[in-house]
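Worked example (supplementary).
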Amino acid sequence: MLEDKKFISNESIARARDLLATMERGDETGAKDVIDDLTHIRESVLYLEMGKLTRELHDSITAFGMDEQISKLAAMEIPNARQRLRHVIEMTDQAANRTLTAVEESLPICNGLESRSSTLQGDWQRFKQRKLDLNEFRALATRLDEFFQENTSDATRLRESLNNVLMAQDFQDLTSQIIKKVITLVEEVESNLVGLIKLTSGKAPDPASIKADTKDDKELAGPVVPGVNQKGTVSGQDEVDALLSSLGF
Amino acid sequence: MKILIVDDFSTMRRIIKNLLRDLGFQNTTEADDGTTALPMLQGGSFDLLITDWNMPGMQGIDLLKHVRADQKLSSLPVLMVTAEQKREQIVEAAQAGVNGYIVKPFTAQTLKEKLDKIFQRIEGG
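After joint prediction of all chains, the assembly is encoded as:
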């Protein structure tokens, strides 16, 4: 550390000799004066070093642009990111609801098609077996007309619903763009934090030396993300079933 | 067959409700967490509880424990449908007396299988 100006110098060696000489002479005052001189030399070296360190710290903080960058991140970027992610939740929620509505509108149409078809099929079989009288045949003809009309309008409604399902997927493009921006921000925060840690501890943080999973045990793990939090988890319904059956389920 | 669906996300409740309707279960009611679900269970004659785990207010695991501790509800079948797939959590749910455990994302087929299993046991027992 004390490289620029060493404590051991010609000057301090000479003063050390003086100290020995004065002490051997029994010169009490002289010896104390020499010790004062030596202390002075030592202190001046320390002051110089402290001054140098302070300047270095100031320089690196300025060079890093830390103040400005970090305040901008904290004051602007992170609140923006929160807002962006909330928007992603809203968009995915809307898309899911639009899709569900379209499906809920389509399912009764399918049920109607199914039941009308099977009723008509019965009548048609009886017709083929020549079991229908004229009145019954006329009724069947009317029902067939209705069937064709209803099928046409049902097909139109189904197509509308399917188009709604299609259009509800437009969120994916937009949410991906928003999430990518937030990922970039997280990377920026990460590099700033690493820089800050380097500045204060002199070395970069080592992920291997940090204890994983220091979170509160009570906090739920939530959905498994591949490569992130798979430790101690099952990888699907089959493994859940296997685990439960091993417990006697 | 009266079923209570408990999940804090309305989309998930709608999905389960539609799947149940497709399986022939029309009589479903919804709640968004354990705190609202418990009085509904105590007040109504439900035959099955399908619940998420992670919810604000009362979580699914606590709802399950309350159900098992309640004299009137203790034998109510409970099916858990959750994103939680830590081994220790699945074991905890089993020990708390869950009747079926489905991890999200799940298929209509899985839901059907677990329901069939629960009803077999009811009929068998």
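Two points are worth noting when inspecting this output. DSSP finds six helices and no strands in chain A. Helices of chain A lie at 10-25, 28-64, 66-128, 134-168, 171-201, 237-246.
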